[in-house]
Each structure stands twice: as C-alpha cells, then as structure tokens.
Amino acid sequence: MKVFLKAKWENIIMANYEIDPKLLIPYLPNGVSLDLFNGKAYVSLVGFMFKNTKLFNVPIPFFGSFEEINLRFYVIRKEGNIFKRGVVFINETIPYQLVAWVANKLYNEHYTVVPTKHELSGNNKTKQIKFEWLLQKNGTLLPLNMSQKRSL
After folding, report:
1. What pLDDT does residue 140 have?
2. Which entry of 60, 63, 126, 137 is 20 to 30 Å from 102 by CA?
3. What is the per-residue pLDDT for 144?
4. Is the dihedral of CA 112, 22, 15, 37 positive or negative?
C-alpha cells in the first residue's frame, strides 16, 4: 500500500480538557470504548505545522507547509489479554481544499477547510507558538486561537 500523506510535524501544542463522556458517544467507533484517565474522559485540541508535505511521496507545490488544528479523544480496545489504545478525530482543520478533498474522499478523513495562521517567536530559552483559525457562527467569522509559551 502506498503512503498517502507524508510530512514532518513541527511546533506541536496541545490543550487537554475534561469532558462529559456522554458527549463523545456519538463519535465512538464500533469495537472500542472510551480510554479514561483516572475515571475521566478527555478531549485534546492539538495544533501543529505540517512541513515538507507530500502526497503519494510527491511534493505538493504551494501546499508543502500548513497548519493543522484537530480535536480528538482517546479510545481503547481489548484483544485477548492486550489493550490497544487509539485516537478518534472529531475534526481536523486545515487551510487547503485540495488536501482536504483528497484525504476525505480517498481515506474517509474528516478534514474541514478554514483560513488558518500561526506565529512563532522566542529566543534560545523560550518559544511562543500560536495557532489561529476562523469559525463561522451566525454569519460572522470568529477568530479562535490557542497559544503556548514553553521553556526550551
């Protein structure tokens, strides 16, 4: 099987939120259950940069680097005596319609396309990473963002 999408992931930030497990049930695939941590369900909002992106190992002109912001939760499946953990993506947001269309059609992904941007700043001791994307509500585009400052 050929590799569909290949890229480096850089400047990853993640925010974890406790959530009522009942809200995740509609997204739960058959054969798995929620992977709880200390009895609690969590979702993660993750932002990162796709770099040097290739489709079927071919570089994508003008689309080689872009932001992705995704919302995910965690699942577990028992096979015999082995527990296998996984991730379910509720949404994956990127800025390019072409990449989203290919992923959605060929691989049954859930990419949505909205304008995104990012900012990186810092020095040798700290790094500031910020991701922004637009969310439409009642006909108005609302900028949402996540940012993190960390020591290197």
Report:
1. 56
2. 137
3. 56
4. negative
For 57, the token pair is 């190992």
Q: How is residue 27 written in tokens?
A: 């997204």
Q: Return the structure tokens found at 29.
A: 């695939």
Residue whose token pair is 């959530």: 19
For 65, counting Cβ atoms within 10 Å of its Cβ (0-12 exposed, 13-18 middle, 19+ buried), the class is: middle
Residue type, 142: L
Residue 73 CA to residue 17 CA, distance in Å, equals: 10
pTM of the model: 0.81
Residue with tokens 């390019």: 96
Burial, 82: exposed, middle or buried (Cβ in 10 Å; 0-12, 13-18, 19+)? exposed
Q: How far apart are CA 115 and CA 133, in angstroms?
A: 6
What CA–CA distance (Å, rounded) separates 121 from 100?
28
- For residues 26 and 22, what is the distance between their CA atoms, to the nearest angstrom? 8
pLDDT tens profile 105-140: 887 888 899 888 888 888 878 888 888 887 766 555
For residue 72 the two structure tokens come to: 């995910």
pLDDT in tens, 3-29: 767 889 999 999 999 999 999 999 999
